[in-house]
Amino acid sequence: MTSEPYTAMKIAQIAPLWEQVPPVTYGGTELVVSRLTDELVRRGHEVTLFASGDSQTLARLEAGSPRALRLDTSIKEPIMYELMHVGEVFQRADEFDIIHSHVGVWSLALASVVATPTVHTLHGIFTNDNTKVFRQYKTQPFISISDAQRLLNLNYAATVYNGISVEKFPFFAEPQDPPYLAFLGRFSPEKGPQHAIAIAKKTGWRLKMAGKVDVVDKKFFEEEVAPHIDGKQIEFLGEVNHGQKAELLGNAAITLFPITWCEPFGLVMAESMATGTPVIAMNMGSVSEVIANGETGYVCQSYDEMADMIPKALKLSRQKCREHVETKFSVTQMVDGYEAVYEKIVGDRNFRHWFNAAIRNSLESFTSLKR
Amino acid sequence: MTSEPYTAMKIAQIAPLWEQVPPVTYGGTELVVSRLTDELVRRGHEVTLFASGDSQTLARLEAGSPRALRLDTSIKEPIMYELMHVGEVFQRADEFDIIHSHVGVWSLALASVVATPTVHTLHGIFTNDNTKVFRQYKTQPFISISDAQRLLNLNYAATVYNGISVEKFPFFAEPQDPPYLAFLGRFSPEKGPQHAIAIAKKTGWRLKMAGKVDVVDKKFFEEEVAPHIDGKQIEFLGEVNHGQKAELLGNAAITLFPITWCEPFGLVMAESMATGTPVIAMNMGSVSEVIANGETGYVCQSYDEMADMIPKALKLSRQKCREHVETKFSVTQMVDGYEAVYEKIVGDRNFRHWFNAAIRNSLESFTSLKR
């Protein structure tokens, strides 16, 4: 694949309005949309980004709201704005060769009644209820962000791994001394901070933890995390910005990823490896696709095994960790993946149009001859 | 207008899935949809009703869910089912001459991208947030259920008052002795049961009240209603079925409608008048359109004035109350109104198609001549 498109495409990107593109602190989906959109513009495509008005982009920005919905406390029904936002894109569907939706179920019904094809990246989680909507529209083209995410029987056009801007993560050739383990992520039971603490306590290692505590997770945090924070062995840094995140991960000897749910991608693993720090993770969801087991970290079957693998993980090559991310989880890789999907879908559609027109013309000529 | 359509139309009706059609106890929208749909079938139209699977209808039923969503406690995100339901209708838009939506904002974006016209009846309330969605799609044809409901600057095709099945309400030529005042409606501050109680206490009249208490209104009920219920002067009957409702209203000397908000229609007023009982109401929203002031009740400017009008209201003709409903708020009236809107919209569209085709043909003939 070349970085010059053989044909420039007119592409619409639909981001959620909840957070701006790129997000100020956290927001996995909006970060991916930002990197993807800017790189598509650099490659010569004509891209329109439908997002909140405070977004920053190289594409033409169409504001679905003046600013990120989460910032406007006067809004009681955010879904009303998402409805209008998605509606606006499909009202203008004729202007695009392809529409790329990052808003999950909200674009499916509209995508299935307009002529322009839409491809849907699955960023969110599946619930009992939203699963039924995805199933109803299973013939739409979907992109999974890992093979492990393919839990539903949908029409998958490709798996495209999330890409990170590797150049924005400095490489740390050596961990800090005294050494520590890192945990980064929301403090929710699914991300497993309670297991990170147990592993540190079992092995005597220091542990530095960072991430946000959502309102719904407050009780969990207070009961299962807070009592263990002593500022010495177990440190809690709260929410961190990009620079602090790179420091936390890069200076660590090992990053722990002790999830308890099927993580669809897990950006933290890629970010840690980008700084040179290997990852020890629980084998659920995408973990075995993101870590090169025995080379850039260890994929474990239990939290005890995670603790046992620390000595081996210390011996892994930090250089190799970085190279792994450069090869598999860069923005270039991600955009190559998406561009190939767009070209295939748009190409198939153009071919169908050309073929139908050709058949029609032949039939007409034939009919004229017979007259 | 005749009850035989000059052309039978293929009509889709979209009801919410929350409650079945018709509703078992309460559900204003679903009751209107039920009466409308059955009468359209009787008039010879080909009607498809998109509603919950436990609905009863003369039309072809397309089930958006096996049963009313409110009955299925396993559902955490009911909106997912409404999404699929509405999506299904528009996927099949080509099968219909016209689509009639009773689901508010949820059908607007889809209606604006398919070729089949959709008309939207406004049943719900306007919020700060949903108002913006209606405004975005203001060129779609809307039907208001009273002139008072036209608070937004939308493309109103008509006002069509809700119609009730007058024959299902027995006429009560005389009120019960000893006489009493009736209040029927949800026990929420907007419906004003607190004012009904104050009016009864001020005048010494007995008051019988019925209706449901929603979870959100429990505190209001316990603080402002319950302390006054003594089972003698102030009686509370709880939720009532159709027969009990007709008895409560028909045996009353007067029905009070002491609302504190802009009621868009107010079925209770029509139901009370159908049984012969005049209504004294606060002048907000549709009240002055539904009551013939001085003939079938009194439209008042204050709750004190409502109390003062009781002696005059006792002298009104109960026969006239019933006739008023038969003339203005019958199902026949309502369906005449909707049928006229459908015929106009479908007719305009057919004319546009014919006109465009005629122009195209003329141009082609002209071009051939010139060759």
Automatic annotation (TrEMBL), chains A, B:
Which residue intervals define the domain Glycosyltransferase subfamily 4-like N-terminal in the entry? Answer: 26-132
**Which keywords accompany this UniProt record?**
Transferase
The record ties this protein, via Gene3D superfamilies, to: Glycogen Phosphorylase B
> GO molecular function terms here?
glycosyltransferase activity
Which InterPro entries does the entry link to? Answer: Glyco_trans_1, Glyco_trans_4-like_N
Q: Where is the Glycosyl transferase family domain?
A: 170-321
Q: Which residues form the signal peptide?
A: none
Please give the PANTHER family that the UniProt record associates with this protein. BLL5217 PROTEIN (PTHR12526:SF595), GLYCOSYLTRANSFERASE (PTHR12526)
Q: What is this protein called?
A: Group 1 glycosyl transferase
